[in-house]
Amino acid sequence: MTDLTDKVAIVTGASRGIGRAIALLLALQGAKVVCVARSAEELEDVAQKTAGLAVPADVADETDAQNVIDEAIRRFGRIDILVCNAGVGSFNLLEHFTVADWDQMFAVNVKGTFLLCKAALPHLKAQHSGHIVGIASDVSKRTFQHGAAYGASKYAQDAVLSTLRKEVRSFGIKVSTIYPGLVDTYFNDSRPGSPNAEKTHLKPADIAQAVRYVLEAPTHVVIDELMIHPLTQEY
After folding, report:
1. Phi-psi map region of 51: left, alpha, beta (phi>0 left; psi -120 to 50 alpha)
2. Which ranges constitute the DSSP H helices of the chain?
3. Is 155 annotated in the active site?
4. Which of these is catalytic: 150, 155, 179, 235?
5. Please, what is the Cα angle at 89 between 83 and 90, to 5 degrees?
6. SUPFAM superfamilies given for it (predicted)?
7. Alpha-carbon separation of residue 98 from 105, 110, 149 (angstroms)
């Protein structure tokens, strides 16, 4: 198994939910964590708990995304892991979506992944090593009512990561994508901990363990795609 001790890991959307769980677990495994999110106050809390670096940023902003990578390099001199987890979603009939809703989901879910990967790649290629992990969704592989905008953004994010996997493999860089089902978080204005979610949703820690699993795979093992969903989830 690959040792994560002293690996430099950037985690976006790290202030709460899945991103926070990933940041905390990677720190527990010995990684040096760069925590990224828009909320500076919540971000500082998780950075303190991980003994990591807090970089407030909007991943959909090109300058902010580049600054995340630059700060990681300035602080630690390298990047070993990039977890593109930041994501937003809203759900409605297609005819009721606003252009602003559509643009926001594509900006964060797709453009954010693109910008962080683009900024990190020169460093990863120079090292001939590194691992990019995208947190997509099981709706990257299916469709459902009220999910046109979110699903389209996740299909697009999946395409970005799948294509990138083919482009960087010869440089010794891995790209893995995780497709969670329903997760008990603040996503889509939800509140975690409801009795219903206890029975039907994954926990953020479940997704963090999936990330750990793909990161700790031996060097010669490539895990491109990992689907994870609760056994009670209905399709």
Report:
1. left
2. 17-28, 40-50, 62-76, 99-106, 112-127, 148-168, 195-200, 204-215
3. no
4. 150
5. 180
6. NAD(P)-binding Rossmann-fold domains (SSF51735)
7. 11, 18, 10
| Residue 107 to residue 14: CA distance in whole angstroms | 18
Q: Is the pLDDT confidence value at 54 over 90? A: yes
CATH of residue 21's domain is: 3.40.50.720
Residue 198: what residue type?
A: E
Asked if residue 37 belongs to a domain, the reply is yes
CA distance 72 to 136: 24
Of the pLDDT bands very low, low, confident and very high (cuts 50, 70, 90), residue 183 is low
Domain contains 221 = yes
Which residue type does 76 have? F
Contact call for residues 7 and 80 (beta carbons, < 8 A)? yes
Residue span of the structural domain in which 149 resides: 8-228
Cα 170 to Cα 93: distance, rounded to the nearest angstrom: 43
Both tokens assigned to 41:
């106050």
> What is the Cα–Cα distance from 65 to 74, expressed in whole angstroms?
14
pLDDT of residue 192: 47
The span from the CA of 14 to the CA of 47, in Å, is 9
Locate 186 and state its tokens: 């603040």
Question: How many Å apart are CA 20 and CA 35, to the nearest integer?
Answer: 8
What distance in Å separates the CA atoms of residue 233 and residue 88, rounded to the nearest whole number? 21
- Total count of domains within the chain: 1
- Tens of pLDDT along 200-215? 567 888 889 999 999 9
Q: Looking at the domain assignment, is residue 83 inside a domain? A: yes
The predicted structure's pLDDT at residue 168? 97
